[in-house]
Structures are given as C-alpha cells and as structure tokens.
Amino acid sequence: MLKFPNLESVSAGRCMMNSSRTAQRADIQFLSAEEKHASQIYRRMKEVYGEQYLARTISRWCQRYGAGHVNNKDLPRLGQAQVQTNSATISAVDELIRQNRRITTREIAVELSISKGTVHHIIHKRLGYGKVCAQWVPKHLSENEKTARMGVCLTQ
C-alpha cells in the first residue's frame, strides 16, 4: 500500500490534505517532475486545497524545480539582518545613559555599533526612558521616588 506524506486522514470517503507550504511545494515539485504545465498544476492545486493553496507562487516554484532546485524551503531574502536585543546590550545602553543623561541615540548607536532604531527601541520600550529638557529620565517613577515626591507636595 502506498503512503502519501500529505495525507493526514480519510473520513467519509473524502481526503483531508495537509495544506502547509512545504506540503504544497512538494506537490508542485511532483507535478512539475511529471512535466505538467503551471496552469495545470494551478487548477489541480485549487481543486485539492480549495482556498488554502499557494496561488501566486506556483509558476515561480515550477521555474525553480525546472532549473534543478530541490529544496522546498524559502530562499534567504535580502535586507537588513534582524538584531536580537539581549540583556548585555540593554544593560550597556542603560549604563551609557546613567553616565551621561544628555547622550543622544546616535552617540549610543556609534558607541555600541548597533542601529539607531535598535537603540530607540531599547531606550523607549525596554528601559522606559523619555527625553525631558534634553535629558533621559525614567517615564515611570519608582516607589521611593513617588514617596519622596508625595512628601514634597505635602510640605508645600
């Protein structure tokens, strides 16, 4: 008995197919190896997968398989690499800000060799700082700062 990798279950005489991208690309690869035209593959995919088929990419994958491409995974894309902010980078940014409250995001970016956007994200989202009178200050007060502020307000 032949087993097909995409076949998940059979119920009430109807095949339920795995509609993942990799599974569909394997089907496209198989049908293009049988020398089916992209339009024929398109019709077959629409018939089998319904609305969950890779409509716009069928001809592109057919061209790749025709050129000898064998991998079903996406190719790497061009663009700026995504930098993960780690605790070391966050603490380095925090230390620079504590040393000089008037430091700019550009100066921090140059100092740590990271992008200004990453610095901006770390300062505003991770550390919770904001610029007031050209100085970085925490947006939210700590409990001690709130108590001190309340004491000053009550004495006046």
Describe this structure in words.
- The protein is mainly alpha-helical.
- Among the domains are: 21-67; 80-126, Arc Repressor Mutant, subunit A (Orthogonal Bundle).
- It contains 7 helices and 4 strands.
- It has helices spanning 21-33, 38-49, 58-66, 87-99, 105-112, 116-126, 143-155; strands spanning 7-11, 14-17, 129-132, 135-138.
- The strands form 2 sheets. Strands 1-2 form a two-stranded antiparallel ribbon. The protein has a two-stranded antiparallel sheet with strand order 3-4.
- A hairpin with a 2-residue loop joins β1 (7-11) and β2 (14-17).
- α1 (21-33) crosses α3 and α5 (105-112) crosses α6.
- The protein is elongated.
- Residues 1-16 have low confidence and may be disordered.
What key phrases describe this protein's structure?
disordered N terminus; two-stranded antiparallel sheet; mainly alpha; two-stranded antiparallel ribbon; 156 residues; elongated; single chain; Arc Repressor Mutant, subunit A
Topology:
Layout: E1 7-11, E2 14-17, H1 21-33, H2 38-49, H3 58-66, H4 87-99, H5 105-112, H6 116-126, E3 129-132, E4 135-138, H7 143-155
Antiparallel strand pairs: 1-2, 3-4
Please provide the ordered H/E string of secondary-structure elements.
Answer: EEHHHHHHEEH
User: Could you estimate the helical fraction of the residues in percent?
Assistant: 40-55%
Q: Note the total helix count.
A: 7
**What is the residue-mean pLDDT, rounded to a whole number?**
77
Low-confidence stretches: 1-16
Rg value: 28 Å
Distance between the termini: 89 Å
Taken as a percent bin, the fraction of beta residues is 5-15%
In total, the number of strands is 4
Largest sheet: 2 strands, antiparallel
Class computed from helices, strands and strand pairing: mainly alpha
- Which strand order do you get reading across the main beta sheet? 1-2
Oligomer: single chain
Shape: elongated
Pfam family, one: HTH_24
Organism: Araneus ventricosus
Protein name: Mos1 transposase HTH domain-containing protein
